[in-house]
Amino acid sequence: MCSEIEQVITDLISEDPYNCDKSRVLVFVLGDESRVAFEKIVPGALQLNSSIGSVLRSRNDIDILFLNKPQVLFMYLMKLDALENGKESIDYNYIIFYGLDCLIKEINNKNENHGQFDLEQVRLSNLIYNIAFRIKRKHSLKGLRYIPLRDDEENTSNSLRKIEEYWETVC
User: Fold this and answer.
1) Closest residue by Cα to residue 14 from 43, 56, 73
2) Would you say residue 112 has pLDDT above 60?
3) Which superkingdom, per the lineage (predicted)?
4) Buried b (16+ CB within 10 A) or exposed e, 65-103
5) Domain coordinates of the chain in residue numbers?
6) Which terminus has fewer CB within 10 Å in the chain: N or C?
7) What percent of the chain is modeled with pLDDT above 90?
8) Residues 6+ apart with CB under 8 A from 146
9) How far is CA 35 from the centre of its chain?
């Protein structure tokens, strides 16, 4: 059984590199735990799809950024948002966030509420989702995808899902 991120990477790599409607993807891998998990998944996905087309796709159409701080993610998103359509427009039609749940949870893991979101976590989550959906609308992206590292942490995943649904309907 493969994880959601593994399935997404496999699907992206196996897409036809000569298809004019192919996906150009920016993947944000967020936090140390997500990076370790992602680095275990990618070699397996590449071995399963070791065709020339897969190699071309992985090099030309899929960009990956490993980030450890939510503030840095927010700065990257601000930069993408500031680009105007036209000459400096972003070159992606999908953005994937992997491990946002763990990154947000790390903000205040000294929290006495044991799994409950505190004000800082909610504020930062709202900022990230707001700007991400604004980028999607402004640059006509085909999609944004948030893939949690751990879906078993009900409080964090559910809270983020609610915030995501809110910003998706607002934007």
Assistant:
1) 56
2) no
3) Eukaryota
4) ebbeebeebbeebeebeeeeeeeeebebbbbbbbbbbbb
5) 4-13+23-170
6) N
7) 36
8) 96, 97, 100, 160, 164
9) 12
Cβ partners under 8 Å of residue 164, min gap 6: 129, 146
Count helices and strands (H / E) in the chain: 7, 4
CA distance 145 to 119: 24
Amino acid identity for residue 60 in this structure: N
Residue indicated by tokens 């150009």: 24
Per-residue tokens: 147? 């893939």
Answer whether residue 93 shows pLDDT above 60.
Answer: yes
Residue 47: is its pLDDT beyond 70? Answer: no
Q: Which residues pair with 67 in a beta bridge?
A: 30
